[in-house]
Amino acid sequence: MQSGRRDFLKLGGGTLAMLALPQPLMAAPAANPPIIDVHLHAYPASMRFENPIVNPITGAKSPIKTGADHLTACLAEMKRLNVVRGVVSGGDGDRLQAAVDWYDRDAGRILVGAGIRGSADTPLPPLEELRKLHAQGKLQVLGELTSQYAGLPLSDPQYDPYLSLAEELDIPVALHTGTMPEGTTFDPCCRTARARFGNPEYVEEALNKHPKLRLNLMHCGWPYLEDTMAMLMLYPNVYADTGAIDWLLPRPAFNDYLKALVDAGFGKRIMFGTDQMYWPDAIGLAVDRIKSAPFLTEDQRRDIFYNNAVRFYKLG
């Protein structure tokens, strides 16, 4: 029987995992500086992870059985590593409620993102529901917006009301960019998904139609380096996060990509993210990648870990 994208992720493995070098988990220093993780995912509390959760990089098996277990484990990792704020969006089921559950558990640490796709598998959330959550202080971000998985660019008209809402409420949009897990287009959820819609060049029309939009290019647009740089150069309201690529890519490949962005002058526009998905231990792996990058100065590390996100999310 053909495995779907979600089963592939839960089981671990795949092209990125085969390319990456296994490495041990890193213990957190006693005095870790504060970190903001702008790219986290939540799952419904009752959701059962039927397959063993195996980290695709380390091979470590997790005892996590449910979405509730996942929430507890992720918050424990965040506290251990001094991740003082985290932007979380739902990754399955009732995506909004999954993210709100995190907020309800630790409101001082969590910023809620509304997962948005716009496909038969994942329809768009009602605008009024988003307004209501924002008024209650339980919505701070629109995203992860996964238009690529729906086979659409951000400029597709169905997203205009959501981008307008983001401008009106002065909240940022976090957009999935770059590539997707192998086999995604063969999964029933995402038959119209295409790699080309992950290219950051597809955000340009939306940015010009919505000039007050603050946009985060998730995954730093990998592997579209030159197009990512072009958008960062032209649009000062565009930032990027390191989610997934900072622990799933082989260390040399990630270092080369991040160094190119920093060397090009975008060190104050890059934010730390993990995209930990099913694996709470990925948070520590991602932290280690930034801490051990030999080309970063301490000031650049602080910008990536904390300062840039404070500015972008207006955390004061």
From TrEMBL:
Residues 1-27 form the signal peptide. Pfam families: Amidohydro_2. Keywords: Lyase, Signal. This is Amidohydrolase-related domain-containing protein. GO terms for biological process: secondary metabolic process. The keyword rRNA-binding does not apply. Residues 36-315 form the Amidohydrolase-related domain. GO terms for molecular function: carboxy-lyase activity; hydrolase activity. GO terms for cellular component: cytoplasm. It comes from Nitrospirillum amazonense. InterPro entries: ACMSD, Amidohydro-rel, Metal_Hydrolase, TAT_signal.
